[in-house]
From TrEMBL:
Upper taxonomic lineage: Eukaryota, Metazoa, Spiralia, Lophotrochozoa, Mollusca
Lineage top rank: taxon: Eukaryota
GO molecular function: lipid binding
Protein name from the UniProt record: Lipocalin/cytosolic fatty-acid binding domain-containing protein
């Protein structure tokens, strides 16, 4: 898998088009109750919808990603 940089700019509550290699999504970023939520809705017929939620818990940033009924949680600790 090649390493590359992808940049997308969001305004809260606005839907934008996102292209990542050969995957296409409609993306919407929201903020509520201390959680930033990115909803990605697949529009290319081959990708899956997914949701990424980021929140601060104590000194940690917790990211929870859900796709197709599978959830992964990553905790980033403040150094």
């Amino acid at each position: 898998m090649p390493i590359k940089e992808i940049t997308n700019e969001f305004k809260l509550d606005d839907e934008i088009d996102v292209n990542d290699d050969d995957h296409k999504y409609k993306a919407k970023l929201t903020y509520s109750d201390g959680k930033m939520t990115l909803c990605l809705r697949a529009v290319d017929g081959k990708s899956k919808d997914n949701t990424i939620v980021r929140e601060i818990e104590g000194d940690n940033l917790v990211q929870t990603a859900t796709c197709n009924g599978v959830t992964a949680k990553t905790t980033f600790k403040k150094c």
